[in-house]
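User: You have something folded?
Assistant:
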Amino acid sequence: MSRIDAPSPKSDGHREGRLRTFVRVRAGGLPGAFWVLWGGSLVNRLGSMVNPFLSLYLTGVRDVSLGTTGLILAVVGIGSVISQPLGGFLADRFGRRVALTGGMLANGATLLVLGHARSLTVLVLACFVLGITIDLFRPAAQALVADAVPGADRTRAFGLLLWAINLGFSFAMVLGGYLASHDYQLLFWLDAAACTVFGVLVWLAIPETRPAAHDRTAGGFRTPLRDRAMLAFSGIIVVYAIVFQQAFATLPLAMRSTTMSSGAYGLVMGVNGVVVIAIQPLIGHRLARYDKSRLLATGFAVAACGNTVTAVASTTVVYAVAVAVSTLGEILVFAITAAVVADLAPASLRGRYNGLIGMAWGTGFLIAPIIGTRLLVIGSTPLWLTCAALCLLAALGQLSLAPALRRRAAR
């Protein structure tokens, strides 16, 4: 009878060496401050359940009409337009830690007010403040990465941050779908708790990274507003943001119109996180070698394909496939967008530059529910085909802007 030999220490060491190399190439060499931010972002996204289910909460629990829901979501969008420029100002003026921790604590408090609002007036006001606070931390977080991580590693770092966010998001969507079917109040409390943990963690464990006073560039928001390349890039992001936000503003409503439950929507959106978790580690460390504008244009084009699939979807499986395709484009767009802004921004104005790109996202989020809910009244197919066309428009715009961005990056 033959015996089975135990694996040799040499083969075990070889496997361990390959695993160590795999991790080092993808995550090695990044500073401790980045990893604290990474961990805090993961915790925050594990609890981020209110915003994705807000339209279902308004129409299902609060009995708000579809048209009024679109207007309330637009109010959230108005707050979002204010949110990141304000957050960028706070990050440059008072420091990254103050802006990030303060934004998280303010968002947690707002979520509790929104969850306990009883009158429509208080509900609308709480949604407006939610829009202001929900992304107040983001310019500080992006500036912190740009401050702490060398330029050659930034695309990889932003990709890893996206990976953590989506790891938490995939779990939050599945759990949120389950909780939404039982008790919406739990969503508000868990989301507020996650915000608090993130804010406190940053305050206690991350040193201030804002440049010293003698290293700061003069100028405020006038500098990014006079930066033609930055303004053009922001315009492209507005177009894509209109499409991206439909996953939260109109996709749950479109799925419900085909008699699908909030749990089905949670599962479909959970695919987003699963795809990022699976794909980003395989490609994130390779993106820095490619031209950023071409990668962005590719991401926009892939998102167009995903929205085209959504236009013909009528089952949970097909919706999940559509989200998976769109997510492939999202991986490129989110990792590269932050790296482009880091290339364009002076070190002392990173908060404001990230605030401007955040304002672009907020503007898209403001427009998205107004356009989306009205197109959805006509039908799902016109809505999603319009989204596909907007993605292709963004891709063409990015390719046109590419020469200017290459010149700026070369400096």
Notes: The mean pLDDT is 84. The chain has one domain: 31-209+221-410.
